[in-house]
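JOB MANIFEST
job_type = single_chain_structure
chain_count = 1
residues = 313
[input]
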Amino acid sequence: MIMAGKTAHKKRITRDQWTAAAFLAPSLILIAVFVYGFISWTGYVSFSNWNTLTPDFSFAGLSNYLYLFRDFRFQADLRNTLFFTLFFIGMVIVLGMGIAILLDQKLKGESIFRNIFLFPMALSFVVTGVVWQWLLNPSTGFNQFLKVFGIQPRWYTDTNILAGFQWGAIEFGLPVAILAVVIAAVWQMTGFSLAMYLAGLRGIPDELREAARVDGASEGQVYRRVVIPMLMPITVSVVIIMAHISLKIFDLVYAMTGSGANFVTDVPGVYMFETTFRGNYYAQGAAIAIMMLVLVAVFIVPYLWYNRKGENG
């Protein structure tokens, strides 16, 4: 009886716990309604026949999803997103880590250079898109300088597909025009990876580098065998965050190029917006949104699971 009383006493919710729950409850309710509630609603609409101004919630099964995978534009969007993500993440990692290593050499005026590289992050993707649309305009911008050397790239107006082969309804290969969007996105987001890598470098003890040098390692080997491997958690975080941005990119593409000729710069976010709010195909737009959610979840869920497993371990 005494042991049972002690157990009951231990399970009693304290006043502090009730207070914490009261503070958390409004946020949890808002998240449940405006995040998961709207995701559920979007999923429900994607299985309906609501493709006119008049709501029609009759069950359509997988017809909206099957239409997408047969659709030329959606296939082009997946191709563009794949190459945009690969080039965007790769360049952000290489430039961010490279500049961070240079700034870590205790250069004079380091804070000035750091602020210069971080400045683009203060701009919205819309502003970045408008600026780079002018800079990469084939008739103005950089081409005014490049024409002196006889170089006149068409940038985001180029419809060529490099190393293309027929895949489904599209020509699968690297759309040259998407590289212009990559340049603009990398310019804006390199500062983010720079800040993360610089913080990681400052967290590596100098003793480890000195020990490697004493063992006869060259400066390049110190970074290749000691420093860069220790930055791997930073790299994983950068990959996840940049993948999340690239897979749901909308405003940069919409402001800079739109869908492009033959959809060479189109992405699912732009397609979803135009399908839903211009074409009034609400069920198809919802299906595109759910597919975007799935693409993001493919990257985010394993990362969260890995982190949780590491914390519990």
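[summary]
The two ends are 36 Å apart (CA to CA).
Residues 307 and 313 are 10 Å apart (CA to CA).
exit_status = 0
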